[in-house]
Amino acid sequence: MSLISTDSEPAALAGYDDLRPLMSLQTGDEKHDASSTSTLDAIWVLYDKILRVSPQTVNDPSRDRFLLSKGHGPMAYYAVLAAKGFFPTTWLRRFGTFESRLGYHPDRNLVPGVEISSGSLGHGLPLGVGTALGLRAQSLDSRVVVLMGDGELDEGTNAEAIAVAGALELHRLTVVLVDNHSASLGWSGGIERRFDVEGWATRRVDGHDHAALATVLGPTDAASPTLVVAEVEASA
After folding, report:
1. Is the Cβ–Cβ distance between 90 and 5 less than 8 Å?
2. Is residue 162 part of a domain?
3. According to the 3-state scheme, what is the secondary structure of the chain?
4. Residues 64, 76, 105, 204, Cα dihedral to 10°
5. Considering its fold, how many domains does the chain have in total?
6. Residue 155 bridge partners (DSSP)
7. In the sheet where 144-149 sits, what is the strand order?
8. Inside any domain, residue 83
9. Strand 201-206 versus strand 144-149 pairing type
10. For the domain that residue 177 is a member of, what is the CATH number?
11. CA 52 to chain centre
12. Residue 206 sits in which domain range?
C-alpha cells in the first residue's frame, strides 16, 4: 500500500518502519537532519503508545499536549504527524518551500496537530509550564509533554521553568530531554541533578529503545513533574 496521499486525504496510517522513507521526502539546505533523527524514536513512541491525541481530537480541550521545543529540527515530527494522519504525506515533499505549510520551524497556525510555534531554543519548557497551569485551572487531567534538546539547558528561561514546575508540583508535566551531549555549560552531577534539586522525578533511558521509552513515559503516580533523559549518540 502506498504511503503517499493526496492533498485532500491522508494516506493509510503508517508504521515506524515507514518513518525514514517519509523523512527522506523532506529535502533542503536547512533540514537539520541529524538533530531531527535523534528525536525520531521518542516522538514515535509518544504518538504511538502514550499521548491521548489524534487527528479527530486535535481541538478537544481534554487532549494531551505535545510541545516540540527542539523546533529547529522538525523533520521527524512532521513524519510522525503525517504517519498518524494529521495531514497528507504529500505535504512532506514541499517541506521548506515557498507557500508550504511545513516550514523549517513548525508553525501552530499552519500545521494540524502542532501545539506551539517553536525553534527559538529555550522556549518550549516555559510554554509547557504555562500550559500545565492552564489545564490545572480548568480541572483538566491532560498530560503536557515537552521534548527538548540538552543544549537548550544553556538558556536561562529553563532554569526558571524548572524551579516553578517543581515548586508547584505540576505532576502532569513531563520533559523528554534528548541528550546528545551538546550542552555547553553542563551541570554538576549531570542533567538529572539539575531537575532533582527542584523536586522533579527523574529517569534516564536509551533514546532508541522503544520498550524502555514506553515504560518510563507511561502512567505514573508521581506527585511532581517528570524528567526523562533519552540518551542518544553524541553525533546525533
Report:
1. yes
2. yes
3. CCCCCCCCCCCCCCCHHHHHHHHHCCCCCCCCHHHHHCCHHHHHHHHHHHCCCCCCCCCCCCCCEEEECCCCCCHHHHHHHHHCCCCCCHHHHCCCCCCCCCCCCCCCCCCCCCCCCCCCCCCHHHHHHHHHHHHHHCCCCCCEEEEEEHHHHHCHHHHHHHHHHHHCCCCCEEEEEEECCCCCCCCCCCHHHHHHCCCCEEEEEECCCHHHHHHHHCCCCCCCCEEEEEECCCCC
4. 60
5. 1
6. none
7. 65-68, 144-149, 173-179, 226-231, 201-206
8. no
9. unpaired
10. 3.40.50.970
11. 14
12. 33-71+119-231
Q: Residue 1: pLDDT above 50?
A: no
**Residues 127, 170 contacting (CB under 8 angstroms):** no
pTM, rounded to two decimals: 0.91
Asked if residue 223 lies in contact with residue 169, where contact means CB atoms within 8 angstroms, the answer is: yes
Contacting residues for 58 by C-beta, under 8 A, at least 6 apart: 86, 112, 113
Cα-based distances in Å from 109 to 115, 176, 196, 210, 214 = 9, 24, 35, 31, 30
Q: What is the pLDDT of residue 122?
A: 83
Is 5 a member of any domain? no
Residue 82 lies in a domain: no
- Give me 123's grid cell: 522556549
Mean per-residue pLDDT over the chain, rounded? 90
Question: By CB neighbour count within 10 A (0-12 exposed, 13-18 middle, 19+ buried), where does 94 fall?
Answer: middle
Three cell numbers at 34?
541529524
Name the pLDDT band for 169 (thresholds 50, 70, 90).
very high
Report the percentage of the chain scoring pLDDT > 90.
72
